[in-house]
Design a protein that fits this description.
Blueprint: H1 2-14, E1 29-35, H2 54-61, E2 64-70, H3 76-85, H4 89-92, H5 108-114, E3 118-124, E4 136-140, E5 150-153, E6 156-159, H6 164-178, E7 185-190, H7 228-232, H8 237-240, H9 252-257, H10 271-280, H11 283-291, H12 296-315, H13 320-355, E8 362-368, H14 387-390, E9 391-397, E10 406-408, E11 412-413, H15 417-424, H16 439-443, E12 456-460, E13 472-476, E14 480-485, E15 491-496, H17 514-530
Parallel strand pairs: 1-7, 1-8, 2-10, 2-11, 3-4, 3-7
Antiparallel strand pairs: 2-9, 4-5, 5-6, 8-9, 12-13, 13-14, 14-15
Helix pairs in contact: 5-15, 6-13
The structure holds 2-deoxy-6-O-sulfo-2-(sulfoamino)-alpha-D-glucopyranose and calcium ion (CA).
Calcium ion binds next to loops.
Length: 551
C-alpha cells in the first residue's frame, strides 16, 4: 500500500519535461506549528475577550477552526507523544513528564520521511530522548529558556542570542530556505511560549501595562459541589502562583544581590526538590537564573518595566480577594505578551511561504500541546479534564481541501493528528494508530461522517507531582462529561455542559441524571475496550505493551 503511494507520488516528477510541470501537484508540504500551554481563550478566532491574534485569525479565516478538539492527557510530554504516534499514553508508554519516549516507535514524521519528505523539528521537544525521523532537528533541552536559550542541534549544543520565539521562527525559515526543494517538507515548529514563567520579548514588555482584563466569572471559585481533587490541587493563583518568580515582582538591585542559585528549575519533575524550593522560598533565585540570561541592555528594560509592578504591589495593602485580582492582571499581562510574539511568528512564516509560492500547497496546522486555565476556577496550569485544560485550539489551512472560514464541531483528539496528516499526504495509516483521520471532516466543510465517534477519551497520570492534580480518566460527549478520580481517591464527577459550561456542579449520583449516567458509564467501558485501556485504575502500567517497532 505504502509503496503504491510512493510510486504515485513520484509520477509527476518523472513526467516533468516541460515548464508547466513545475506546478504539477505533488504531496503537500506540512507546517505544524505548536505552542506550549496556549488556550483557545487567548486566540481571537475563538472569540477571545483578552487578546487580538490577527495572524492566527488568518489561519481560521482561510481555513478551518475546530471547536471540539481535545487532548487525551493534558500535559506536555504525553500530549507530544500522542501527537507523534497517534496512540494514547498507555500504549505509547509516555504517561507523564518523567518518562523517556521510546523513539523506536512508529511516528508520522518517520513515515513521511520514508515516503520522500524532508523533515525537520525546531523548538520544544520535551520527550527526554533524541528525536528520530528528522533530517534536521534543533531542540530546546527540557523546558528551554526564554532568553539566550540553549539548543541541541542534530546532537550538538549551542547557545543562541535573543528571544526564544524569534529564534525558533528564524530557524524554521532558514530550514525552509536551504531545504532540498525537490522534496515536500514536513516541519514541526514547536514554540516554548506561552509556558510558565511567561517572559515576554523585549519589544512586548510594556504591551499590556495599562490594560485591565475581564475576569473569568469563577476566578474566586470555592470548589464547593466538586470532589476533593478540585480542592487539593496546588495551582491556585491565590496560593500557588509566586509573586517573585511568576510575576517578576523584584528590583534589579535585589536580583543583582541574590546569590547561591541551585539549579532547581532544571529538576522540575522531582517533587521533593519542588516542595523544598517552595519551603525555602528560593523564588528570587529561580527568577535570577532566568533573568541572568539577559544582556545588560535587556535587564535595564526589564527592570524599568517590572520595578513599576514592584512599586504598585508595595503601594497598598490588599485583602486576599484583591490580591488574587491583582495577581490575575499581572498573570494575563505576561502570559498574553508572550503570545504576541507567537502571533508575529505565525505571520512571518506564512508570509515567507506566500513569497516563495508554497503557501497553498502547504497544510498549515496551528495547535497547542494542551489548553490552560487563565484564571477559571482561580487556576493557572492544566492537567484537569475540565474544559479550559482539555480543549485544544486547532486551526488548519489547506485551500486544496479545506474551505476558507469553516468551523467544525466534530469531536476530535490529539491522537487524530498523525492519521490525518498521513492521510492528507496520501499515505496509508498504520493499523496500530488509534486516532482517526480528520480528512473527511476537512473535506466536508467540518461535518463529521455519520459513523463518527460520540465521545473523546481522557486519562491523566502525573501525580503526585507539580500542582498535585490527582489521577483521573473519563469521557466527554458533545454534552456531558464523566470523570473518575482514582489512585489517591475514588469518586466520580458528572457535568452537563449545556446547563453548566463552567463545570461548577458535580451531578454524579443525582436521580434525574441516572439514565444519562448509566449510558455514559457504558460508553466509557466501550472506549476503554476500544482503546485498550482496560485496567485504568492500575497504578503502574505495563509500558510499551503492544508497541510495534519500525522494521
Ligand atoms: C514546569 C512548571 C509547572 C508546569 C510543568 C509542566 N513549573 O515544571 O508549572 O506544570 O512545567 O508543564 S516552572 O516553575 O518550572 O515553570 S508542561 O507544559 O511542560 O507539561
Ligand atoms: Ca504544555
Amino acid at each position: 500500500m505504502q509503496q503504491k503511494h510512493l510510486i504515485l507520488a513520484a509520477l509527476p516528477a518523472l513526467a516533468c519535461g516541460f515548464s508547466s510541470c513545475s506546478k504539477a501537484p505533488r504531496q503537500p508540504n506540512i507546517l505544524f506549528i505548536m505552542t506550549d500551554d496556549h488556550s483557545a481563550q487567548a486566540i481571537s478566532a475563538y472569540g477571545s475577550r483578552l487578546i487580538k491574534t490577527p495572524n492566527l485569525d488568518r489561519l481560521a479565516d482561510e481555513g478551518m477552526r475546530f471547536d471540539n478538539c481535545y487532548v487525551t492527557n493534558s500535559i506536555s510530554g504525553p500530549s507530544r507523544a500522542c501527537i507523534l504516534t497517534g496512540k494514547f499514553s498507555h500504549v505509547n508508554g509516555f504517561t507523564d513528564n518523567s518518562q523517556t519516549f521510546d523513539g523506536n516507535q512508529v511516528t508520522y514524521p518517520k513515515l513521511l520521511q520514508r515516503s520522500g519528505y524532508q523533515t525537520a523539528l525546531i523548538g520544544k521537544w520535551h520527550l527526554n530522548s533524541d528525536p528520530q525521523g528528522f533530517d534536521f532537528w534543533s531542540i530546546l533541552p527540557g523546558q528551554g529558556d526564554y532568553y539566550r536559550p540553549e539548543f541541541v542541534e542534530n546532537g550538538v549544543k549551542k547557545v543562541e542570542q535573543g528571544y526564544v520565539t524569534d529564534i525558533i521562527t528564524q530557524k524554521t525559515i532558514s530550514f525552509l530556505e536551504r531545504r532540498d526543494k525537490s522534496k515536500p517538507f514536513s516541519v514541526l515548529c514547536y514554540h516554548k511560549a506561552p509556558h510558565r514563567s511567561w517572559m515576554p520579548a523585549q519589544r512586548h514588555l510594556n504591551a499590556f501595562e495599562h490594560t485591565i482584563f475581564p475576569e473569568p466569572e469563577n476566578l474566586l471559585d470555592n470548589y464547593k459541589n466538586r470532589g476533593e481533587a478540585a480542592r487539593r490541587q496546588m495551582m491556585e493563583i491565590a496560593k500557588h502562583m509566586w509573586l517573585t518568580y511568576d510575576l517578576k515582582i523584584a528590583t534589579g538591585e535585589e536580583l543583582d544581590k541574590a546569590h547561591n542559585y541551585v539549579a532547581l528549575h532544571k529538576t522540575d519533575v522531582n517533587k521533593a526538590d519542588v516542595l523544598a524550593a517552595n519551603r525555602q522560598g528560593d523564588e528570587l533565585m529561580r527568577l535570577k537564573a532566568v533573568y541572568d540570561r539577559m544582556s545588560d541592555e535587556e535587564k535595564k528594560n526589564w527592570n524599568a518595566r517590572y520595578e513599576k509592578r514592584w512599586e504598585e504591589f508595595k503601594s497598598k495593602k490588599r485583602t486576599p480577594e484583591e490580591l488574587v485580582k491583582f495577581k490575575y492582571q499581572c498573570y494575563m499581562q505576561d502570559y498574553l505578551s508572550t503570545i504576541l510574539a507567537v502571533d508575529e511568528s505565525v505571520g512571518e512564516i506564512l508570509r515567507y511561504l506566500e513569497k516563495t509560492g508554497e503557501l497553498d500547497n502547504t497544510i498549515v496546522v496551528y495547535t497547542s500541546d494542551q489548553g490552560f486555565f487563565l484564571g477559571e476556577h482561580g487556576w493557572f496550569d492544566k492537567r484537569f479534564m475540565y474544559e479550559e485544560s482539555q480543549r485544544m485550539p486547532l486551526l488548519v489551512r489547506y485551500p486544496a481541501k479545506v474551505k476558507a472560514g469553516t468551523t467544525s464541531s466534530a469531536l476530535s483528539m490529539n491522537v487524530d493528528f498523525a492519521p490525518t496528516l498521513l492521510d492528507l499526504a496520501g499515505l496509508a495509516v498504520p493499523q496500530e494508530m488509534q486516532g482517526a483521520s480528520l480528512k473527511p471532516v476537512l473535506e466536508n466543510n467540518g461535518k463529521a461522517p455519520k459513523d463518527w465517534r460520540k465521545a473523546v477519551y481522557y486519562h491523566y497520570y502525573e501525580y503526585p507531582s507539580w500542582h498535585m492534580v490527582m489521577r483521573h480518566y473519563g469521557l466527554r460527549t458533545d454534552r456531558y462529561k464523566l470523570i473518575h478520580f482514582y489512585n489517591d481517591a475514588d469518586y466520580w464527577e458528572l457535568y452537563d455542559l449545556q446547563t453548566d459550561p463552567h463545570e461548577m456542579h458535580n451531578l454524579y449520583g443525582q436521580a434525574q441524571y441516572a439514565e444519562v449516567q448509566k449510558d455514559l458509564h457504558k460508553e466509557l467501558e466501550n472506549l476503554q475496550q476500544q482503546y485498550k485501556d482496560t485496567d485504568p485504575d492500575e497504578k503502574q502500567h505495563e509500558f510499551f505493551k503492544g508497541v510495534e517497532q519500525l522494521r
